[in-house]
Write a structure and sequence with these properties.
This protein is of the alpha/beta class. Helices cover 37% and strands 15% of the residues.
């Protein structure tokens, strides 16, 4: 089967994944309005290409947090890659290494952070984390990934509670017997314990009481750059800058948390304007084509990240499938960039964009 675009991988995954796995990966919160609008919002944006610009040579390279990557598309943190492919996140890590791009490893991975590093020792990785009710669990994660050479921490902040995902009740408590969240192995002697003054809770439980002061706590225990993932407003973007973080990922969790929020591409401009270049701004949600990447960069994103398409690639052919997904996006982005009259990413700007009046 010839895979021409990312929707080909989506069709394959839907046909070949188990129903539980497909529902878990694909669902959004409530009525899935935000999940769907993440895609539709790109169709409301038009490009204004320039011609006769000598695009005989082109360069898709960029940098994130000072590290060069081959093109401005990285891999978002998504959980349980073992549901799509037997090698799980090890295959994902090798694909990211092969394409020389950034892979944000999820806390809730089926492979441990150590296994991922061993599988792709030269890969460029960030680690996505939460602040858990047991602070020592969060601190142990930070110590582990820092020692392993992860280059940044990505703190997810839009998930004090799980969004209501009507089409899927799947989570770590009902993983298939051959899979588990290996990063939690040995973190505590018991799988469940009691937080003083709170209900009996899992040590995996994210703390819903956290505020901006926990960002300072995280900064106190690591020298790694801290990226905040899950910001959708200029007010929170300004607070992120004030609290000394190094980057923002404009994200609505793939539409899986609060339904009815802004599509990420619609939220991007006000955040970029608020930040005023003081820190790097990234985006995830709804990227399906190279033109989508171009539009996000034109509106001020330094880099974009993809989630579900990586899982579709895994379901297709593991590492090879993810490599194909990334290569298709890279080729499409290069073509969209040059057809718009840009020879490199530094020439991409808002003059390329016009919002549809329809």
């Amino acid at each position: 089967m010839a895979m021409v675009c990312l929707t080909d991988f989506e069709k394959y995954a839907k046909e070949h994944l188990s129903k539980d796995a497909w529902d878990y990966y694909s669902t959004g919160a409530e009525e899935c309005c935000t999940r769907d609008d993440n895609l539709l919002a790109y169709k409301r944006i038009r490009l204004r290409p320039r011609v006769l610009q000598d695009v005989s040579e082109s360069d898709t390279r960029t940098t994130v947090q000072g590290t060069e990557i081959s093109f401005p598309v990285g891999i978002s943190p998504t959980a349980y890659h073992g549901l799509a492919w037997h090698e799980g996140e090890m295959a994902t890590g090798r694909a990211a290494e092969a394409l020389n791009t950034c892979y944000i490893t999820s806390t809730y991975s089926n492979c441990s952070v150590e296994e991922i590093v061993a599988a792709a020792p030269d890969g460029f990785r960030w680690f996505q984390t939460h602040i858990f009710q047991f602070r020592d669990v969060s601190e142990k994660f930070v110590q582990r990934v820092e020692a392993l050479g992860y280059k940044a921490l990505v703190l997810t902040v839009d998930m004090p509670y799980f969004g209501k995902r009507r089409d899927s009740t799947f989570n770590y408590t009902n993983l298939p017997p051959h899979l588990r969240s290996k990063n939690f192995d040995g973190m505590l002697p018991k799988p469940e314990t009691t937080v003083p003054g709170k209900h009996v809770t899992s040590y995996r439980a994210i703390d819903p009481s956290i505020t901006w002061k926990e960002v300072h706590w995280l900064q106190s225990i690591t020298s790694l750059p801290i990226i905040i993932k899950g910001i959708l407003t200029k007010e929170d973007a300004e607070l992120a800058v004030e609290h000394g973080v190094q980057g923002i990922i404009v994200s609505n969790h793939g539409g899986r948390q609060l339904d009815g929020t802004l599509a990420t591409i619609d939220a991007l401009t006000e955040i970029v304007d608020a930040v005023k270049g003081r820190i790097e701004v990234y985006l995830d949600g709804g990227i399906r084509t190279g033109s989508d990447v171009l539009k996000a960069l034109a509106l001020g994103a330094k880099c974009v990240f993809i989630g579900r398409p990586v899982l579709w690639g895994l379901a297709y052919k593991g590492e090879e499938g993810v490599r194909e997904v990334l290569q298709i996006l890279k080729d499409e982005f290069r073509l969209a960039m040059t057809l718009s009259g840009c020879r490199n990413v530094t020439e991409i700007n808002r003059n390329l964009i016009q919002f549809s009046k329809l």
